[in-house]
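user: Please supply your own:

assistant:
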Amino acid sequence: MFTAGALGFCFLLANSAIGAEGDLSGELDFNGAPAIISSKIVKPAGAIQSCLETSYAGLVLFKFDNSKGFYAVCVQRHHLFGDGWVTVQQRVDGMGLFYKNWQNYREGFGSFDGSFWMGLEHVYQITSRTPHELIVELIDGDGEYSYARYSHFVIGDELEKYALVMLGNYSGNGGDYLSVYQGFGFSTFDDDNDTNGRKNCAVLLEAAWWYNAKCAERGCNLNGANFEDK
């Protein structure tokens, strides 16, 4: 199983599409002004709803309907998967950073130049309108790269506890460690939505995640305190 480990880890989403890296700096403010960043490609003048709407790699404003806008990182020219990806999570180290409460996971936290979580509400807004693929990338302690790709990633809204509704078909070389959580709500230490009646998996593993009754058995714990690959 994967625990939140290795040297690097991130989630990427693209709306049924398949980067050059932007220069990201500064503390994260998901609902406020972004840090100043640089790119050879002109940043969009207004808000977007998909990274496919721009060739810009870096921090971009997203906005849907009458909801408040938020910032997210677009990835372009990915070495395997091409353009149009938005980064949901990036974990460079983040020891202890990911043991957060429900509100933090709903709204997002971290630093765009290091480890961060975009926010479940923002993921829901992005994925609820058009079909999206999911890529989970991992670089282990030996520098080995692996990935898991899912053809149709869907989560529920907050009333549904952002349940992992659908993943679609798996491909990749990293193993399918997410499918065991399909259908289950997201759990934090202060909002227990797993089906284990005796304990809160998020407290037990010091990690918020989509847990079933067996916590992370045969699955993944990518937000966990132990930064290793088992």
Q: What stands out?
A: DSSP finds three helices and 15 strands in the chain.
